[in-house]
Amino acid sequence: MELICLDTGILIEFYRSKNKRNTVLFNLSKQYHFAVPSIVKYEVLRGDKKKDEFWISFFKNTIVLPFDDDCSQIASDIYKFLKNKNQMIATDDILIAATAIKNNCKLATLNHKDFIRIMGLFII
Question: Taking the domains of the chain in order of start, what are their residue ranges?
């Protein structure tokens, strides 16, 4: 199975859903393996006021892709491209996209309108 990156919204939708079988994450699990960019982990933990065991377990059992030097170069290129086209998106999203691109992973996201602006990023 192919490894893909998950964006924060996919994880939050799954976490909040009463019926997990109706979530994007559940449906993706039938055909993909998952990794999360370290920025996604940061976004989730930043919002986790209770230090929920769900997140502790999830991140313990999921590949977390680091934001490294190569990612920083890719992110700066994305930033410059979007700024020049006057189509900026959130910095965290640029960092997430750069991590996915660096690791040759598609990105599963609920935020298509922002991520679609990034050349070289394949979105699920």
Answer: 2-115
Q: What is d(CA 112, CA 62) in angstroms, rounded to the nearest whole number? A: 23
pLDDT band at 73; cut points 50, 70, 90: very high
47-63, pLDDT tens digit by residue? 998 888 999 999 999 99
Which among 89, 88, 97, 109 is positioned nearest to 65, based on CA atoms?
97
Single-letter residue type at 44: V
Is residue 10 within 8 Å of 115, Cβ to Cβ?
A: no
The residue assigned the tokens 């890719």 is 74
Residue in the structure block whose two tokens are 């491209």: 81
Topology annotation, domain 2-115: Rossmann fold (3.40.50)
Interatomic CA distance for residues 14 and 18, integer angstroms: 8
Distance (Å, whole) CA 124 – CA 109:
7
Strands 32-37 and 2-6: parallel
Task: Look at residues 38, 51, 29, 32 and name the one whose alpha carbon lies nearest to residue 8.
Answer: 38
pTM for this model (two decimals): 0.94
